[in-house]
Amino acid sequence: MPAQSEKQARLFRLVRAFQKGDVKPSKVSSQVRKMAHTIKPSSVKDFTKVKEIIKKLKEDYESQGSEYTLSKAKEITDKPFDQVLRENVGVPFDEKELLTFQSKQSGFAGFGKTNFVHKRSTKEVSAEVQSNDSTKKFVFKKLTNNQNKGFYNYACFVRILSDDSDEPKDKVFYTLSSIFDEDGGTQKTKILADFIDRINSYGL
Question: Which of 10, 81, 140, 189 has a Cα at 20 to 30 A from 204?
């Protein structure tokens, strides 16, 4: 049975992580501990499957007309992850953007704190999360918009290495934020903050 909301999915991902021993008892609530002891791991896992979350979010988008949609989170099947990153050369993040990433570390991907690592040499910010029998790498870049000179998009590239025998071993997705200009000021950082939240809600 799929999760009925993004919030519910995040809760069950935390329960699953606790069952696997990835999260200490002191780091979760009594509700999470109780759920972990009373619900079978296989049932918990049913609420955290990527394909079910994606299906639910697509339905939400179609009914609400949201700007963000998982149809924009496209799967890349013909290129390895490293090649995709090399082909999408970003421009540097500024100090305010880096501070925005820092402010979003708590609760990213459904866990306590995820470290965003800034690599100046490749002009990217990345995070790696282990959960749901998989390892997920998120790489954020700021890309020049090819159709509109002087404008940009934030991009997130996601690699999912799955240990689940029912799923392909390696999946690569990417999605883009709305367009913005470099002089956007607080509007620019608001777009980035919202974009990170949306990536978090996708359940990837």
Answer: 189
Annotate 25-70 with DSSP letters as a single string: GGGS-HHHHHHHHHS-HHHHHHTT-HHHHHHHHHHHHHHHT-S--T
Q: Which residues of 47-61 are buried (b: 16+ CB within 10 A; e: fewer)?
A: bbbbebbbebbeebb
Instruction: Identify the pLDDT of residue 204.
Output: 55
3-state secondary structure of 154: strand
The residues that bridge with 165 in the sheet, in sequence order, are none
Quick one: tokens of 131? 């959960």
Does residue 50 surpass a pLDDT of 50?
no
Tracing tokens 């109780």 back to the chain, one arrives at 34
With 0-12 CB in 10 A as exposed, 13-18 as middle and 19+ as buried, what is 72?
middle
Q: CB of 199 within 8 A of CB of 184? A: no
17 close to 111: Cβ distance less than 8 angstroms: yes
pLDDT digits (tens, 9 = 90+) for 79-123: 899 999 999 999 999 999 999 999 888 777 665 578 899 999 999
CB contact set of 181 (below 8 Å; sequence gap of 6+): 150, 151, 152, 188
Asked if residue 157 has pLDDT above 70, the reply is: yes
CATH tag for 68-201 (out of 2.40.160, 3.30.70, 2.60.40, 3.30.1300):
2.40.160
What is the reported pTM?
A: 0.62
